[in-house]
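I hope you will forgive my troubling you with a question about protein structure. You will find the record immediately after this paragraph.
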Amino acid sequence: MNEVKVSVVTATYNHEKFLPHTLQSIVEQKVNFKYEVLVGEDCSTDNTAAVVREYAEKYPDIIVPYIREKNLGMTGNAMDLVARAKGEYVAFIEGDDYWIDEDKLQKQVDFLDTHPDYIAVFGKCIIVDEEERRHPEVEQYSGFVKTGGEYTIKEFKDYLLPGQTATAVYRKVAYGELMKKMQSIQIDASQMIDRMLVLCMLSLGKMHVMDEEVAAYRRMMNVESGSWSSKNDFYSVENLMQYLKGLQILEQVAQMLGLPLCFDKRRNYELKKLYDNRNHFSANEFVKLQRAIQADYKSKLAFFCTKIKLLLRRS
């Protein structure tokens, strides 16, 4: 069989310490089809490029290296790799995560092959730290669905994703359809990552979640590590404002895609959380965040009802 069935997209930057485990978990997959691994090394300042070259030399029939001469950024790097993918399906895994099930790709391909009405399949993930220690207490509160089955807009409204990036496999043809749709409604394709990607894919077809753990999501617990997760999980004015803006953008995109989406339930949650943590902010910061939440509510009644309940609770 000469045709590539799956293209694995691995965007990596400064992952010298973690990338060997990532790539090893990919090449050890047990499959009955041909697959390729497109590795985009995005001008790292450490020895990530050397790791990529080493694995490309060791597995020349599987790994296709792209050592960038110019930094493309996380989104640009991944999108360029997707454009080069030859497979019928596309799987994603970033350079610091790894797969924990050697049959992951086979199981997901089997599902998509036998369920043509589904455009994507996900699995569950465990969460580990820099030293690969598992953290069940973090997994408990992760933003991923906890049960298998079909993933719908209802779960998206609850701010739950079908799975972490490393657990996903998509039909490549869906990307072509998605790009055409994005152009027709004038959405910047560079924003097509994570939550935005899932939302837009929901407008194309059904998604399935396997009730099995297939990947490890490496979440840096040290804020000084420089990782996205360690910096962006911090409860601060800046991060909360960005989060609220993100909700608003997702609602606007959903409306253009013809999907029913309202995040007032999330805003209720954030308002309660704000009141519970008001001592975390200065008086000016608290008022700024409260007004930002209020301004975004689709239902002003929902905001005032929640605010009154909070004021009564404090009296």
Q: What stands out?
A: Confidence is low (pLDDT under 50) at residues 223-232. DSSP finds 13 helices and nine strands in the chain. The longest helix spans residues 237-257. The beta strands are 4-12, 34-41, 63-67, 89-92, 98-99, 118-128, 149-151, 169-171, 206-218.
